Amino acid sequence: MINIYKINNEKFKSIYFSVNFTISANEKEISENAVLASVLSKSCKKFKTQKDIEKYLYSLYGAEFEVNVEKYGDLYNVEFAIEGINKKFLPKNIDIIPDCLYFLNEIIYNQNITDNTFEANIVEREKEYILDKIRTKKDDKLRYSVLKMEELMCKNEPFGMYLYGNEDIVKDITAKELYKSYLKLLNNSCITVIVSGNLLGYENIEEIIKDIFRDKINSKVSYTNLLTNIDKSMDSKEIEEVFEEGDTTQSVLSLGLRVNNVAKEDFYALSLYNAILGSTPSSKLFQNFREKESLAYTVRSRYYRFKYIFVIYAGIEKENYSKAKDVIKKQIDDIKEKKVTNEEFNAAKESIIADLKEWDDSKVALSKMLLSNLLTYHYDGVTIDEMIEKMKKVTLEDVVNVANKIVLEKIFLLGGAANE
Amino acid sequence: MNKIEVSNCKELEEQTYKTILKNGLEVYICKKKGFKKKIGMFGTKYGSVINEFVDITRNKRIKVPDGIAHFLEHKLFEQEGANALDLFSKIGVSSNAYTTFDHTVYFFETMDKFNEGIELLIKLVKTPYFTDENVQKEQGIIAQEIKMYDDDPNFAVYFNALRAMYNTNPVRIDIAGTVESISHITKEYLYTCYNTFYSPQNMFIVVVGDVDVDLTINLIEKNIKLYEKDYDKNNKIDKIETFSQEEIKDIAKKEIEQKMDIYMPQLCIGYKLNIVTESEIVKRSLVCDIISDLYFSKITPFFEKEYEKGILSDVPTFGYEGTATFAHAILFASSTNIDKLKFDLCEYLEEIKQQDIDTEMFELIKKKKIGELIRRADNLNISYRRIIESSLNSFDIYEDVKILKDLNKEDIKQFLNLLDVSKQVISIIREK
């Protein structure tokens, strides 16, 4: 099946093309695909070097090209994306859009391959590039704490693994093996093409895409074969506390929460729960942890749609560790006990609805949301308006109901040694 | 009726309207057809580098604690115990505020609560509410903000470079101040700064989005009037007098190093430059952008060589920063082989001054830059940044588009020759 989706809006000046290869992957495959994505983005048969690629993109009025890796729950996605300007806005109405698509086709399907292998020196260099990504993950302490909590909450699940894979696995990848991964990615992925932007003058864009890519983008894997949550986690009875040393002035505290017995439609109540707990300035964490107790500047909660988990994180003073934990636990308990004011509830709802509406102003966000919904619901009919309507209907009872399915499982404290 | 000026940008198919209200407040509206999001901003031309001035209420020269402009930003976005972010959030509007070296901005973003947003924004900025208690509470929050930046290597490498370049200019002090300096901030100091720098003729309002121009100006005027009793009388314009210590031409320190708990070392090479007039500031920014592409981007043989050797992984960036009191250009880069990178970059920066500029490359970069301008018009945040720059430096709103078209190789050459080794500083953050 050829999956091409169009999102047209004439307020934009450019068009974003996104070709997605989605797979179920283990740690080895994640590591291989991270390196592969990097290799594919740096060279192909027509444009041998990074410099050649970049020069060509400059000549297309700075078309923006990227090969991204991302996780949708336990699924791994390699995205080939290019954004080019609609001819209407270019000098003499020059049309670069077909060139953008031909370019993407060269990158994905016409690689620099001889004797069933990539060039060894390119692979070695990109391995280093990915190794640096893995090794620098601790340089941003707040971000690292969130990653670490994802890992603690999803042990042995693809989602708990680092986006760029494992250091030891990456080191051992060979150019020959990588070629096998490449064939696997092309042949065993679920392929989705999304076109998002100003399509005025490109009414036949679907035909142009089919002409260029032919049946190569025919997806042999359907959305129903993909599982966004394999959930191997064990119910833990006790809260586990993990500490990690670090020579920093600030400590970062993070907490991992899990929703048990979740239903698909709980998504709306859980998003609202997250807004009430800690994703907006009206939330309990912002109001009480930051404003009332002055415990932090940064405090937030994040909901993971595909994994049914929450991560709370805050930059704190190490000596406040125990008080900080208590204040956070109190906020979690308060929602369970329905101690949520009308004001808190309405503010949370307003803010989520506003966020949903805002997606409409970004070509990239629209494209990502469509893919997210395809992977969740297996069809493309879920619109922003529909999501807003469902969100509006959520009651406080629904939120309290899901709140009581939520259990605190892990606590992680990082660093703070420089302040002792 | 207020007189409205229109700036039209053909390339971006975009118009920006400007008017000056009776009280001296500048209002800008950038029309973005079809977009749902609307942004409202209220700003003052007052930032962290002003720490000595004439207190307008007492007509007396005073010095205030470092970090006060940023502290004021936190405190002003609050009303009788309620945080502004929360007040906005309650009506479904997201908001924030930020302080830079030379301006402070309060803003909100909304889809369909624009009028309510403007009303609340103006109310908040026009009604300061400082108490001993809420000042003390904020000291705890801002202390954590300062410590968060202390642990951020990108921030550290940058501010260390500024400290190496400047001897006395307050640009060398963190925008948020230090935990020590903010402990001296009192509600009296906050009122003094507020009364001096938050007068209408020192401020601007910027709106970006698909709004009706006349209705929006009326809405703003109506709300401003609520808080200014003598709005209709012809206000005398108070001249704000600020003082900055004379900064000598020489740098403070050639090299500065710090160790942090990180894996990837960071490098900044900075050049202290002569201060230029307002229109030159935009041009220098664009010239530095082009230099970034011409000498350090992925299309350059330099990057290609350093990448192959494993010295560079990410592209170095070169940029200009300047106001009426300071001017410098800074190159940012990172490498696991930081000493080799430093050596190569220093050598290369001298080499490029001697090289001829390849015409084909130069034109290719201009082509990309024009495309970038058009593409970035899809992002509403770019529009407001352009307007704020234009208000701070009083030049035409779309001046950057015009200057870019006219830039030539000579402009690049001239700027490169300003990069003097004796005014060069090197800041490094190493792993512990």
Taken from the alpha-carbon principal axes, the silhouette of chain A is globular
**What is the alpha-carbon Rg of chain B in Å?**
23 Å
- Strand segment tally of chain A: 12
> Total strand count of chain B, please?
16
Instruction: State the largest interface.
Output: A-B, 71 and 69 residues
Ends apart, CA distance between termini of chain A: 61 Å
CATH fold topology of the largest domain in chain A: Cytochrome Bc1 Complex, Chain A, domain 1
| Structure classification of chain A | alpha+beta
How many discrete domains of chain A? 2
Biggest sheet strand line-up of chain A? 1-7-2-4-3
Number of helices of chain A: 15
Largest sheet of chain B: 7 strands, mixed
Strand order of the largest sheet of chain B: 1-2-3-11-4-10-9
For the record, the CATH architecture of the largest domain in chain A stands as: 2-Layer Sandwich
CATH superfamily of the largest domain in chain B: Metalloenzyme, LuxS/M16 peptidase-like
Helix content of chain B: 40-55%
Q: What is the name of the CATH class of the largest domain in chain A? A: Alpha Beta
Shape designation of chain B: globular
The helix fraction of chain A, in percent, is 40-55%
Strand percentage of chain A lies at 15-25%
**End-to-end span of chain B in angstroms?**
63 Å
Structure overview:
The complex is a heterodimer of chains A (420) and B (432). With 420 residues, chain A is of the alpha+beta class. Helix content of chain A is 44%, strand content 20%. Chain A has 15 helices and twelve strands. Chain A has helices spanning 27-42, 50-59, 97-109, 120-135, 141-153, 167-172, 175-188, 205-213, 266-279, 284-292, 321-336, 342-358, 363-377, 384-393, 396-403, and strands spanning 4-8, 14-24, 64-72, 75-85, 113-114, 117-118, 190-197, 240-244, 251-259, 299-304, 309-316, 406-414. Chain A has a five-stranded mixed β-sheet with strand order 1-7-2-4-3, with helices on both faces. Chain A has a five-stranded mixed β-sheet with strand order 8-12-9-11-10, with helices on both faces. Chain A is globular, with a radius of gyration of 23 Å. Chain B has 432 residues and is α+β, with helices and mostly antiparallel strands. Chain B folds into two domains: 5-227, Metalloenzyme, LuxS/M16 peptidase-like (Cytochrome Bc1 Complex, Chain A, domain 1), CATH 3.30.830; 255-431, 2-Layer Sandwich (Cytochrome Bc1 Complex, Chain A, domain 1), CATH 3.30.830.10. Chain B has helices at residues 68-76, 84-90, 114-126, 132-150, 153-165, 179-182, 187-197, 213-227, 278-296, 301-308, 338-354, 359-376, 380-393, 399-406, 409-416; strands spanning 5-9, 14-20, 26-31, 38-44, 52-55, 60-63, 78-79, 82-83, 94-99, 104-110, 203-209, 255-260, 266-272, 317-322, 327-334, 424-431. Chain B starts with a strand and ends with a strand. Chains A and B meet through α2, α4, α10 and α12 of A and α2, α4, α10 and α12 of B.
